[in-house]
Write a structure and sequence with these properties.
The complex is a heterodimer of chains A (about 110) and B (about 110).
Chain A lengths: L2 E3 L4 E5 L4 E3 L2 E3 L4 E8 L5 E7 L5 E3 L5 E5 L4 E6 L8 E9 L6 E2 L3 E6 L1
Parallel strand pairs in A: 2-12
Antiparallel strand pairs in A: 1-4, 3-9, 5-6, 5-10, 7-8, 8-9, 10-11, 10-12
Chain B lengths: L3 E4 L2 E4 L5 E7 L5 E7 L5 E8 L2 E5 L6 E7 L2 E6 L8 E8 L8 E2 L3 E5 L1
Parallel strand pairs in B: 2-11
Antiparallel strand pairs in B: 1-3, 3-8, 4-5, 4-9, 5-6, 7-8, 9-10, 9-11
The chains are: A mainly beta (about 110), B mainly beta (about 110).
Chain lengths: ~110, ~110
Amino acid sequence: AQSVTQLDSQVPVFEEAPVELRCNYSSSVSVYLFWYVQYPNQGLQLLLKYLSGSTLVKGINGFEAEFNKSQTSFHLRKPSVHISDTAEYFCAVLNSGYSTLTFGKGTMLLVSP
Amino acid sequence: DTAVSQTPKYLVTQMGNDKSIKCEQNLGHDTMYWYKQDSKKFLKIMFSYNNKELIINETVPNRFSPKSPDKAHLNLHINSLELGDSAVYFCASSQTIYNSPLHFGNGTRLTVT
C-alpha cells in the first residue's frame, strides 16, 4: 500500500520569504514522487517529479524538492515566494508497479504582502 | 489547444436525475482517469482506463459508469444523483499506466440540490 501525509493544511507566509511544504510518504517498494499545484477554480498542474537519479529536483516557478529515502520525505521548497504562488499544493506518490497516484490532503500556501 | 478538456464546467441538478460529464484529451496518451475532489480538497481516484480498457475501479457506487469510446475520450455517467455526489470531478490523462505524470482538466463542479 502507498500513502502520503502532508502535515500542514495551511502555511501562511509573507511575500519574498522562503517556504517549505512538508510531505512524507509510506511505501514498501520503490516510489515515484510528484508535487502538483492547484490554483483557484483550476485543475492540477505538475510542479515537479522524482522518478530516479538526483535526489534534488527542480520544477517550474522556482520550486524544488528533495527526495530523502531514509526519512521517506519529499519536501517542497522555494527560496522567495510571490503573491502569485498562493494556491493549494498536493504531494503524490506512485509505487513502482502500481498504476494510480495517491494524493496527500493538500497544503494551502497563503502568501501575503 | 487545451490538452485535457471536460464539459460542462458547472453542473447543477436535482436529486434523482441522471447526468454525464465528457472528457477529451488531445495529447495522444494511453491512459485516462476520473478523480473526485471533495469539499475538503481531498482527491480520490475513481476510475482508470488504459487503451479503452478499464484497469482501475475503486470503491465507487455502481451509479457511476465510465465509458471510453476511444483512447482520447473518457466520459462519466451518473445515475440517480444524490446530495453526496456534489463535488468537483477531474478528468486526467497520462502517457502510460506507470510513472507518467498526470495532465488534468479544469474540473466539473457538480452541485446536487
